Amino acid sequence: SQELNDLREVMGVLQHHDAVAGTEKQHVADDYSRQLQRALNECANITSTALNKLLSVKSSTGKSVSEKLPLNSCLLANVSQCAISENSDTFVVTIYNPLSRAVNKVVTLPVKDGNYDVLDQDGNSLTIDVLPIPSYVANIPGRASSATHDLYFVAEDVPPLGWKSFIVSSSQSNKKKSISSSKPNSDS
Amino acid sequence: GSAFKIDDNGLVNSVTINGVTIELDQNFYYYNGFVGDNSNSDKRSSGAYVFRPDGDIKKVSEQATVSTVEGQLVFEARQQFNDYVSQTVRVNTIESYIEFDWIIGPIPTNDPNGIEIVSRYSTKLATNGTFYTDSNGKEMLKRVRDYRPMWDLKNSESASGNYYPITAKIAIKDEEQGIEVAVLNDRAQGGGSLNDGEVEIMIHRNCLHDDAFGVGEALNEQAFGQGLVIRGSHYITVGSTSDDNGESISAIEKDIAQRKLLDAWTFLTPLETTIEDYK
User: Fold this and answer.
1) What are B12-23's pLDDT values in tens digits?
2) For residue B61, what are the contacts with CB-CB under 8 A and spacing of at least 6?
3) Using the beta-carbon criterion (under 8 Å), do B267 and A155 form an inter-chain contact?
4) Residue A65 and residue A58: Cα distance in Å, rounded?
5) Nearest residue of A to residue B269 by CA position?
């Protein structure tokens, strides 16, 4: 609760009219950013723990998940920067839907140029786009990324207050997998 | 189901959303901020607290350099208006809106007045001076240009006197045609409808003089040693105001607003084992 309280407190501070309207001094704006970033980082542990509970409950194989799965956010994805998606050959994307109804979502992730495959939970390959990042995004000051493209796919029917996972792999990792992997189990 | 057309000058000039096609021009404009006198009382500067334009609105550029990128899910038109204004206009296969994804900055500081940039959406809808903005993201309130419901208004500031907070949405309607155009924003902004059929929203500004309302400094935010570069989106939707042909535009707007304000969370996990082990 300490971690959650930190974010609550910062959100309380940010209710101040200067924060809402943008009439704070510059160094105060910088401090708001600092506090908010720190509180979000601390809360990452809570969201990860909570979502791991859901993942555990939802495990369809019946096996208990003893290991906590790291669930990372990419807070700079708005400038097409994300260390995991641009540096990992294979990674899992988990979409959590906070609404009380199912939604479809276009997922956008910064990646390096290449061929990608996105599989849903049933092992189906999804339609994807890999589009080059425009120069005016790539050149945003402060952006430090090796991503040259954005990967798009549609997460369909993410259940209310629930999640769906997708596996993204680059062509290099696909080649490796083709030697050893088999089709996913029908119940997975 | 959404689509847009781009004119020879590289600007959007019509949109089709939810089965309705209308002429819609979009461009970026700017106001020069007013510079006050020494006491900053009678003649007060445009600043953090007040928007006080000096002179008429001007176009950032008459045209944009445009390129298009087409995928199976996403279609993008990438527009560059000048050194500090760029935009991606984006549609995808599942959404009932068109996204205007703008990147603005660093705004030049060589003019003492400062520059206040707006995105303007112009249609031919007959709106009779009326538009709607939300209050705290909840209730849509009717606004009438140069009018206040509680007193006789003598508006001495034609632009800022008709600006209102836009927390999540601004809309205009043509009652006769039964068509509504709504712009949903991803952050609270200011804006209005200064001419019939138009919506304008301020998206970025620098004001190089303090307005003497309390902040005590000019509004000239810096990052990485230069003026701030901002990125954000407007989601435009158009539709029928009646329920006769299925879902009403109000329901569509509410759906978009919910999915934007309570967007799905994305988590990433690097996979160091095989997919089978992970499962």
Assistant:
1) 999 999 999 999
2) B27, B28, B81, B82, B85
3) no
4) 10
5) A92
